[in-house]
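Long-time lurker, first post. I've been practising inverse folding by hand and with some scripts of my own, and I keep getting stuck on stretches where the structure tokens seem ambiguous. Below is the full token string for one chain I'm working on. Before anyone asks, I'm not after the true native sequence, just a reasonable design that respects the backbone. If someone could post their per-position residues I'd love to compare against what I wrote down in my notebook.
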């Protein structure tokens, strides 16, 4: 049975991915987020538990209490949010908070997760079309997503001796709550989070010799 951990399973893609795995009897999957259930002595399959991933101390305590060395077959880092304002109107507090959640927290997870992942296991990070190009009123978001792509590329090289695969999915628009206040974009033009979760879940069943590295996934209309 494959053992999977989802960091950021409280909403959006992470929540939907956890729901997808909850129906798969070939895996044991748990998620964490600030919206989750209170942690107890034993983790249950398909449950999202409460953990503030912004706290390095809480993250380390969780990993050491609940996972063993080379325990995990796969880790999905799905947390993040959007900040869509012109550069002149973004406050320093907004900028710092956004980059901390979208880029620094994935860094903290990678900093402490390696010893818990099996050889031939994988980490999947979520990039974006904003990892590849710029968009107006998206300077903070583009910066964080360019950073995720660079982080994935660097860690992939660092971890080659440990035979840990680093996947980075560059994805176009997936309809999640971050789009609700952007009426210029239509839900029907985007990827559904359910379909995208099925795609992500399939990574668990790939042959261990397959290293996806960077995958580009777009809705039918392309970049919106």
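-- Answer (accepted) --
I ran through it position by position. Result:
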């Amino acid at each position: 049975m494959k053992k999977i951990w989802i960091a950021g399973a409280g909403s959006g893609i992470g929540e939907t991915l956890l729901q997808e795995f909850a129906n798969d009897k070939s895996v044991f999957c748990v998620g964490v987020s600030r919206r989750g259930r209170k942690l107890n002595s034993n983790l249950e399959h398909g449950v999202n538990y409460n953990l503030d991933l912004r706290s390095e101390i809480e993250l380390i305590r969780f990993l050491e209490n609940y996972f063993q060395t080379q325990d995990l077959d796969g880790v999905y880092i799905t947390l993040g949010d959007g900040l869509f304002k012109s550069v002149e109107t973004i406050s320093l507090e907004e900028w710092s908070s956004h980059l901390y959640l979208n880029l620094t927290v994935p860094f903290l997870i990678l900093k402490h997760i390696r010893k818990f992942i099996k050889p031939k296991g994988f980490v999947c990070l979520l990039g974006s079309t904003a990892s590849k190009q710029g968009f107006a009123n998206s300077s903070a978001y583009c910066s964080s997503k360019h950073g995720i792509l660079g982080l994935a590329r660097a860690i992939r090289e660092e971890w080659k001796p440990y035979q840990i695969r680093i996947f980075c999915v560059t994805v176009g628009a997936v309809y999640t709550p971050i789009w609700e206040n952007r009426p210029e974009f239509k839900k029907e033009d985007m990827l559904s989070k359910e379909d995208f979760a099925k795609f992500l879940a399939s990574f668990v069943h790939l042959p261990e010799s397959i290293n996806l590295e960077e995958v580009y996934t777009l809705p039918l209309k392309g970049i919106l």
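A couple of notes from the structure itself: The longest helix spans residues 92-113. The beta strands are 2-7, 27-33, 48-50, 72-77, 117-126, 165-171, 214-217. Happy to go over any region you disagree with.
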